[in-house]
Write a structure and sequence with these properties.
single chain, 273 residues, alpha/beta, Rossmann fold, six-stranded parallel beta sheet
Length: 273
């Protein structure tokens, strides 16, 4: 069936899996954890762009047709009208999204970077007998300091997502973005979801915030981090102390640029001050 595409991006450990689980309660929506579609699209563009052997054979229109075909082929078995494709890199490719699907929107989940890194470290510590594939070598895995540094680096799991989000916020297509602050999502989920439907210009759906289900054990086991995409049944805030050393937590606590977003046309749902 023909699909209408929207996208999910933002920071890891910021509620994107929870958000996908809520979307899946709507029978019109399909949402999941990260898909390979963006990587496939990058591959096609790389192999057919100027300077490659195939470039003279592939016009820009044909490149667009092939690229859109990747979306339709990957989601061919999904019998739902709305597809939310997830990848943290989509915010760095808003011009591509606008070219392929001009009506598409991108919903981004964001959270205090210190708590993102805390959550990643907490998950890693739950699997001490595994060498998680989140790090490239033993030096990066060695201590909490090296792990946090590796994740927060510009090319790291968390750092890349943060930079990609800023990239999108200050791009020409920032009005395609809705940034949802994690703290507001877990405290006022009904308010947030109402805002999402308004942003998407779709009829609202009555979600059940006390019976949320989502897990992806095979994907998480492949990464060597058990429970990375498992959500709690009830949407509510869960207070806890950080596992990060105090100087690390303080270093990354003041990077929530979306809570005071100036010179950007992106939309935000953030806690009131």
């Amino acid at each position: 069936m023909p699909h209408k595409f929207h996208f999910i991006a933002g920071l890891p450990r910021s509620g994107s899996t929870l958000f996908s689980a809520l979307l899946r309660q709507n029978p019109e929506f399909h949402a999941d954890i990260s898909s390979p579609v963006m990587g496939l699209v990058d591959g096609v563009i790389a192999q057919t762009s100027t300077g490659t052997e195939m470039a003279p054979l592939v016009t820009n229109q044909k490149r667009m047709t092939i690229t859109k075909g990747l979306f339709s082929s990957y989601y061919d078995d999904i019998d739902k009208p709305y597809i939310f494709d997830t990848n943290r890199g989509w915010t760095s490719k808003l011009s591509l999204i606008d070219t392929l699907y001009p009506e598409a929107k991108v919903v981004c989940l964001a959270r205090n970077m210190a708590w993102v890194l805390d959550s990643m470290e907490r998950q890693i510590r739950k699997s001490p007998l595994e060498n998680t594939q989140l790090f490239g070598n033993s030096q990066q895995r060695a201590t909490v300091y090296s792990r946090v540094e590796a994740m927060a680096a510009q090319s790291g799991l968390v750092g890349f997502a943060w930079h990609a989000l800023r990239d999108g916020c200050f791009s020409d297509f920032a009005d395609k973005l809705l940034i949802i602050d994690y703290d507001l999502l877990v405290r006022k989920p009904a308010q947030v979801m109402s805002g999402v439907y308004q942003f998407l210009e779709l009829p609202e759906f009555q979600h059940d915030f006390d019976n949320v289900e989502f897990d992806s054990p095979a994907f998480d086991q492949n990464l060597g981090v058990d429970g990375l995409h498992r959500v709690h049944k009830q949407v509510q805030p869960r207070e806890r102390k950080t596992v990060l050393p105090p100087e690390l937590f303080e270093k990354y606590s003041n990077m929530m640029f979306w809570r005071d977003l100036k010179n950007s046309s992106a939309y935000t749902l953030t806690p009131s001050r």
